[in-house]
Design a protein that fits this description.
Blueprint: E1 5-6, H1 7-10, H2 37-41, H3 72-76, H4 105-109, H5 139-143, H6 173-177, H7 207-211, H8 240-244, H9 274-278, H10 307-311, H11 341-345, H12 375-379, H13 409-413, E2 432-437, E3 443-447, E4 450-452, E5 459-461
Antiparallel strand pairs: 1-3, 2-3, 4-5
């Protein structure tokens, strides 16, 4: 009897897997599910062993000898005999007899002197109060008298500047040291840049022009377009989810929520609510409204006289006389004479700007109309262009009557293989009988063994399984 096989083991394309979901509650199973993506993609090799690590193992090595309880502190430390520190008894304070001498060096060396009050050198301010009128004329105005002083004529010799009529003859240091010399041009050894004209005609033949021969191109080969041929087999729209997933039959869960039934009644409610029971209506009196008194104007007229109007006495006061003395200025109608000593003695001189000492140009400036004829335009001679002869070899296509060998290595060595359908793609794999589904969700099938009879070679199956 052949062993049973899971759907994961029957699959040959690698796309069919069991759901791997437990179907029983509180059932862990005796055999664990070891089918994972890592186990499938990375198989275990029995011949190759993993490399040994040269790293030493971090294991605790037990020291079998007896452990000594001697430490560095115990071996180096020497105990000393502890002697108590002597205690000094404090003497009792005894005050000295007699009086304390409070004298100091300052009191001994310093001699006190009798000090008299300082007399003020500043005379006392005397205030002269007189009952007469104050004379406001100052001493300067009373004692000063203006004298009639005549203007003194200046003793300066009158020197009128006359600009020179001759040219300025003093030469500068640059003009004395620098002697203008005649420019002598150096002889040029540069060959003259003159185009040498050839008498022979220009040969414009090139190798391309002589060797190139134009050939007529053959028509381009156009590969016929392959006609689309639809497949005769129907399209299989069965997905992996539809194929592998089979819902387990079961009843729908009942809702524990109570039904939302509306209780309605047209009868009048006669009960008493909590609000009606606790909050009874009270008798409230209306607030008293006070009437406003009507305004009654007082009899008689209003007296607008105030205490200030009645008690105030108006006095006639003359304006205050200024204490400032009257200035004794003499006003004259003569025009103001604005001539000063500076204006009369320092007259403006008539001076003109000195011309720049400039050397005369040796090269005279051109006169007349400018002709825009350049050296290139005057010396250029146009020539007729002759195309160069081509020396390129002829690209001739040699026709060949032999057929073209279009065989490739792919066409000769490729052998088409028939596409096999994965047995796990069917609802029930052909040649297998469904056994059971374990708690991890694996579907197990058993393969049917065919038997051969003596009369004919047709196989006879032991078991026939029909799954819907």
């Amino acid at each position: 009897m052949k062993p049973r096989r899971c759907l994961c083991e029957i699959c040959t394309c690698g796309r069919h897997r069991c759901p791997h979901k437990p179907t029983r509650i509180y059932d862990n199973g005796q055999q664990p599910c070891l089918t994972t993506e890592y186990v499938e993609k990375y198989p275990k090799y029995s011949n190759i062993s993993p490399p040994r690590s040269l790293k030493p193992k971090q294991e605790y090595q037990v020291h079998r000898a007896k452990m000594e309880g001697i430490t560095t502190f115990k071996s180096d430390y020497l105990p000393y005999d502890i002697v108590k520190r002597p205690f000094r008894v404090q003497e009792e304070y005894k005050p000295k007899t007699g009086e304390i001498e409070l004298g100091s060096t300052y009191q001994k060396d310093y001699n006190a002197y009798k000090i008299q009050p300082v007399t003020l050198v500043r005379p006392l301010e005397r205030k002269h109060t007189t009952g007469g009128k104050l004379d406001t004329i100052p001493t300067y105005q009373d004692d000063y008298r203006s004298w009639e002083v005549q203007r003194r004529e200046p003793s300066k010799v009158e020197h009128v500047y006359h600009p020179p009529t001759k040219k300025f003859g003093n030469s500068t240091t640059f003009q004395d040291d620098f002697v203008p010399r005649e420019l002598n041009l150096r002889q040029s050894f540069k060959p003259p840049c003159v185009a040498k004209l050839s008498d022979a005609p220009f040969d414009g033949t090139t190798s391309h022009r002589t060797s190139y021969i134009a050939h007529q191109l053959e028509p381009k080969f156009i590969r016929p377009k392959e006609e689309y041929k639809p497949s005769n087999q129907p399209f299989e729209d069965l997905t992996t989810h539809r194929n592998d997933f089979k819902g387990l039959p079961g009843q729908l869960a009942n809702s524990c929520k109570p039904e939302n039934a509306k209780v309605g009644s047209n009868a009048h409610f006669n009960g008493v609510t909590e609000f009606q029971d606790r909050f009874q209506p009270w008798l409230v009196s209306l607030p008293e409204v006070r009437k406003t008194k009507e305004y009654v104007p007082p009899p008689g007229n209003i007296d607008f006289n105030s205490t200030s109007h009645l008690d105030y006495v108006k006095h006639e006061i003359s304006p205050a006389v200024p204490i400032r003395p009257v200035s004794n200025r003499r006003r004259t109608n003569a025009p103001f004479q604005g001539n000063t000593t500076t204006k009369e003695d320092f007259k403006a001189w008539g001076s003109c700007r000195q011309e720049i000492t400039k050397k005369q140009q040796e090269i005279p400036k051109p006169t007349g109309k400018f002709y825009d004829l350049t050296t290139f335009k005057s010396h250029y001679i146009p020539h007729q262009i002759i195309p160069a002869q081509s020396f390129k070899p002829v690209h001739a296509i040699v026709p060949n009557s032999a057929p073209f060998q279009d065989e490739t290595m792919y066409r000769t060595e490729y052998t088409p293989k028939k596409q096999e359908t994965c047995p796990a793609n069917y609802p029930s794999p052909p040649g297998y009988v469904y056994v059971k589904t374990d708690s991890h969700g694996h579907k197990f099938f058993r393969q049917l063994t065919p038997e051969f009879s003596e009369s004919n070679s047709n196989p006879i199956l032991k078991e026939v399984a029909v799954l819907s």
